[in-house]
Specification:
This protein has 183 residues and is mainly alpha-helical. It is 67% helix and 0% strand. The radius of gyration is 22 Å and the shape is elongated.
């Protein structure tokens, strides 16, 4: 019973220290990107509830907080420098984090420096980049989006989840429609 109480006290002390460190780093996320990411990963390992507390009180979104944890987990034992992390930024770091290992982290950092975030995700998936690619944004009502998705599925777009067609699938199907119309 006494051992359990001492262990719990130690965990609470560690939680307090880790939370303080995370809050300090969170004052300037961009400057302290790697340090904050590693601190959040350590915080999660110690007590997941502390991450929820941090996220609620720090002002960081839940999504960004968990991306930072993934970054911390991936890079905590790799020799990436805080300067390299700052140069790349958290958006690109979250893209390369799932692939990062001791033997390839530098190559991934170099790719991140070379490509914009949306292209980096494609490169990491092994997709060929389209030169001078353009993005098309459509603002549709829910009913019109549903009608468009049905048409796109007739032209080969498959749903990636129960409700969504990926942008890649949507683009391929849309270009099939354009070709069928003779353009």
């Amino acid at each position: 019973m006494i051992k359990e109480a001492k262990a719990q006290t130690k965990q609470q002390e560690l939680s307090t220290k880790l939370l303080a460190k995370a809050y300090a780093y969170a004052r300037d996320v961009n400057k302290n990107l790697l340090e904050l990411s590693v601190a959040l990963w350590e915080l999660q390992k110690n007590n997941i509830h502390d991450v929820v507390t941090f996220q609620e009180e720090s002002g960081l979104s839940q999504r960004k907080t968990y991306y930072l944890i993934d970054i911390g987990k991936a890079f905590c034992n790799l020799p990436i420098t805080p300067d390299q992390a700052r140069e790349i930024g958290w958006t690109k770091l979250k893209e390369i984090a799932p692939y990062a290992q001791a033997e390839n982290w530098q190559e991934l950092v170099d790719k991140a420096k070379k490509h914009k975030s949306s292209d980096l995700a494609k490169v990491l998936r092994g997709e060929k980049l389209i030169e001078n690619e353009r993005v098309l944004t459509l603002r549709l009502s829910a009913a019109d989006k549903e009608r468009l998705d049905k048409l796109l599925m007739k032209y080969g777009a498959g749903k990636t989840t129960a409700t969504n067609i990926s942008d890649r699938e949507r683009g391929k199907a849309l270009m099939k429609i354009v070709a069928d119309l003779g353009f």
